[in-house]
Structures are given as C-alpha cells and as structure tokens.
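Thread: alpha-D-galactopyranose complex, take 2
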Amino acid sequence: MSSAAPHLGDRVHDKILYGGDYNPEQWPRTVWDDDLTAFKLAHIDTLTVGVFDWSLLQPDEQTYDFSLLDEVVQTTTSAGKRLVIATATGAMPPWLAHQYPEVCRTDFEGRRHVYGQRHNACPSSPAFRRLSAALADRIAQRYAGHSSLVAWHVGNEYGGACYCDHCAAAFRLWLREHHGSLDALNHAWNTTFWSHRFTDWEQIVPPNALSEHWRGPNHTAFQGITLDYMRFTSDAMLANFVDEKAAIRRHDATTPVTTNFMGMYRPIDYHRWAEHLDFASWDNYPPDERSHARMALTHDLMRGLKDGAPFWLMEQTPTMTASRDVNPVKRPGVMRLWSWQSVAHGADAVLFFQMRQSRGACEKYHGAVLDHAGRTDNRSFREVAKLGEELDRLGDAVLGARTPARVALLFDWDSWWAAEISDGPNRHVRYQEVVMAYHRALWQANVALDVIPVTADLSGYDVVVAPLLHMLKGDLAQRLERVVARSGSVLSTFLSGRVDEHDNAFLADVPGPLAGMFGLRVEETDAQPPDVVNPVRLGDPDESVVSEGRLIFEVVIPQGAEVMGTYGADFYAGTPAVTRNRVGDGGEAWYVATSLDDDGVGWVVGRILRRHGLVGPYADVEDLELAVREGNDGTRTAFLLHHGREAVDVALHATGTDLLTGEEYAHGQTVRMEPTDVLILREHADSP
Ligand code: GLA
Ligand code: ZN
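Output below.
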C-alpha cells in the first residue's frame, strides 16, 4: 500500500475502479450472462445500477417493486462486482406527472411542460420533493449494508431551471433568507432604477421572458434579480440532492454519496454544492477531439471542489456520443489517453456510460462497452479491455494521491454569471474562453495547478491567476494582496474588480478594491467587434513581441505600475495594455487590459512562471502534457500524455520506473512519444 488515504468515507479501494453505468433491465435476461463474461474479459469491477429505474421500482404511488433491481444487484454481486447504487430519480415515471402536473417545469417562456424526457423535475414541487426522497429512502433501506455497495449515486446530472409558481414562492423565501428585508433587497437590486421598488414580497416574480428578460436568459433589465434567480435555482436543486442524501443517511451512516456533475456547467454553482457531496464525480463529454487542455482544466476544477481530494470520472463514452449533430468515434488510443489523463489529474475511478448499447430511443447509437451484437472482438472493446488490464497493473499506486500545486487558477460561478448577463461592454466576451486562454498557457507549461473557488485559502500558492474576476466578494482583495506581499504573483485581466456581490458597480475607480494592488486605474473601456484587432507590443523594445488584443480595450492610467505592453492603434495607441506592479519584497501584480491572443497570454504567463521557476520540462513540446500525483508518503508519479499529432523525442525529466511495463528510465534519457502515448513514471526518490 503506497499512498492510499481513506478519502471516501471509511472505504479504501485496492485499485482505480473501472466500469460504468449498467442497465441490464433494458435487455432480455438472456444477455446478462454474456455481459458478465465480457466484463471479466475487460477487467471491469464496478457497475452503476438503477439510474433510470423509477418507473420500474415504483409503478404507482402506493407500490414499490424491487424484484428486478434485486436480481441485478444479486447477479452482479455474485460476479464479484462493486456497485454504485442510484436513487433512480433522474427521470420521472409517467404516473407522477399525470397525478401531480406540478412536477413538470415551467420554462423560460412561461410554458408549463407536460410529461416527457428526463432531468426536468420542478425542484420546488412538494410532490417531487416528497416522492423523490421517499424513493431514495426505500432504496437506501433495501440496499444499505450490501456487501458490494461502494457509493450512492443521487439523481443524475442536475441542471436547467424552472419558473413555475412553486418556484416563485420558493424564490421569495430564498430572498427573505438572503436579504432579510425588502429595504435590503431594494438596495441590492438597485430597484429605484426603472421604478422597481418592491413594497411586498408577493410582488416579486421569477425573471424570465415574461418579466425582466428579452432575447433570452442573458438579457435582463435587472442583473441583481437574474443573478439571485441563478443562485436560487442552483440552491433549489441542491435541496433536492440534500433531501435524498438525508434519506440515505437514515439507513447508512458511512457509504459515500455523490452525484455526477457536468464539469464547466454554467447553471449549477458546484462550489456551493461541494460540501454536501462526500466526493466529487463528473461526466466527461468534451466538445471535440482537441479538447485536451479543456479536459485538464475541468478535471482540476472538479478536484478543487473537495480541496484537492481525488474525484471519480463517473461517465465518458468508450467510442462515440449520440447527442451531437455529428458524432465521431474516438480514434485508436484516444479513449485510453483521456482515461489516463483523468487519473493523472486525480481520478480514482474511470467509468463509462454505458456498459451495453441502448436498444432504442435517443441513445441507441451512443457508444458502449458492448455494442448491440455484444461483440468482444472489435476495436473499441479491445481498447476497453486493454485499459482494464493496465488499471489492474497499476493497482493502488496512485490511489488517494494528490496534485502538488503552487499555482492556483480562480474559478467563480458568480463572475461567470455576472459577466455574461451584463449589458455592456461586450457580449462577445465569454467567461470560459478567457479562463481557458490563461489555463492553456499554464497547461502548455506543464504547471501543476489547482482550480479553486474565490473563497479558498490562497496562502499555499506562489502564483494566483484570476482571469475575468468580474465580481469581487468578501475579503478576496485582501487575500490577493497577501499573496503579493509574501513575494508571490497575482495575474488578472480586463473587466475584473467591477462589481460587488449584488452586481452593483463599486463607487470608485476601476478595478475597485483591486486598484491599489495593481497600481493603476482604468479610465475608459472600449469595446470592438471580434474582427477588430489592436496590436499589442509586449516587453522591452528589443524583445519586440507583438500580439493581438481583441474585444475589450481598457485605457489604463498607471499609478505605480510599470508598463509591460502597449496598444499599437487607435486613440489609445502607446498607452498600457499590460502592466506589472512590483510590491514590497519581490511581489508582482500583473494586469492585462485586453483580450490577448494565445501568444500574448503565453508571454505574460511565461514571465510569471519563469520568475518562480515553475516552467515545466516539456513546455516547448506542443501538446505534451505532464501531470504529477503525489502520495502522502511523498512518492511522485508522473504522467506523460501525448496529445499531439506527431511523434516527438523528449529527454526525460526524472529517473523512475514505468508502472505499466516495469522498465527503468534515466533522467535525460531520450524517449519517443507517439501520438496518444502515455508514460506513467514512478519517480525514484533520489531522482534529480
Ligand atoms: C449523460 C447522462 C447519461 C447519458 C449520457 C450520454 O452524461 O448522465 O445518462 O445520457 O449523457 O452521453
Ligand atoms: Zn418550478
């Protein structure tokens, strides 16, 4: 046993869990044995069962029937599988909507929906809350203490929003709790603007297309109202999760409880949810084949939910998705590469959706471990089986191990929401894109990174990167100042420090409470369409790095900061676009006043990383990823992951043992990395 820590309740596993969603109730009983034989071939040890079983488990309000799920649980347990048991509330049964129409949502346009689809219960419906908790209670009562149970899976992919009367009432209650009085609420929402002073809580209605909005969810007359509704919606669904978790805890005090998140998913503030989960888990369906940096960021964001503790990859497709207009298969080696990438970033489970391909309905073309024919001799199954074998070989080597990060990237749902529902200055600015641009530069530099909420402790980091920190809450400004005061570096961008927690502008120079630390004020903010470029010259005149600025051009007046880059065009030509404020004994606060291209962001990030000695060994090799997990006994396991399209020769950064082949490698030795290659190196303690 090397580094495994008891991070999941009291359960420590002996290897990375491998398997996925298994829904045998959707197939004839005759294929179940074939399934189990195939799972054995693929080294699959963990199955998530019952995610969409509500209508089977409860055919009507008075009747519960566990016979089929019992059989699934027994069969899989006898085959030695570990089970993640779901509470089955992700999709509602028809009788529920028929009997209680209130469980169906009212959408943004104000249309009350009728029965259909899934993931669409009104979070405030008393009938849904009562019956979902009752089902979770029954399931927990039945399977608590079961020998194969390793975790509870509540609901499925919570998301969306509802604007019904139940939600309106719940919103008013939420507002009373959060604002205390109507005076406070009127002040927070700045309601004197456009004659909105509320004199009775009952006057408040949800912000949607019938009330404050036009052109959709991002266009609102009152940001404060819409922002509070986003927070309320996230909290309302959290209450659904908490209802079910409480029901489980009545029967089972220790088995960890989770729900599957969706990574960078705007409607739900996962930071607000995190403390209620025993471990984080998420479903990885990247938008395209070149999403490696984005996935790394998302894994780090998910790991950051529980203070750096390992998370689970709850779902990924072994081959293709079905929900996109075009659904390419994963190329040979890609599923393996992406799976190891999740482990490299802290996953202690690698699970698929799903084990056998759907017979019918909208996911019949979605890839699965077993296709419709149940073949075990096709490419995708062979790749699944090979990875299973490798995960067996890795055993407990990295279980519980953490990421040793000295750099933090701040991620904030409130800033995301506030920046994107803002009228002005530029609708083309997207929060995720700005974050991803800064992340890409850090990722390419092989930097070990924590992606953390703005409330996290910053005292362990040398560098804090805070792109588009639009909303500034609590004592964050002081905590950032402390990073700089102890010789660290802080980097932020345009449109930061603009608003308080209610989305009201600071009655001060921009960037508000951050102005002192950055040593500047922003006098004007120009916005241009995406095709307008302003060249930005970076560094000393002899360095002559020219990058491109777009979308936002803040006119900066330095007040102590040095100019590190200047605009090349327009009436602000020659004025600062990038600044650095040196503080105290070697602290630096960098400010980037425009949306720089990748080269420009890379230059700024590189300057900061170099001064802290944090540029990684493969920073110059495009698309070669390095991620390290460190056990609590100090053992370091380095993952080299090649996402590039060409083979590369690299000089190894450490001496160590390849955990998959047992081969020994020396520091400086040349290794050829082919596209999709993975090298997992247990570094020797005395490695240089
Ligand atoms: C989500 C759901 C699964 C399935 C997959 C298909 O992640 O949780 O039930 O629909 O998508 O990609
Ligand atoms: Zn509702």
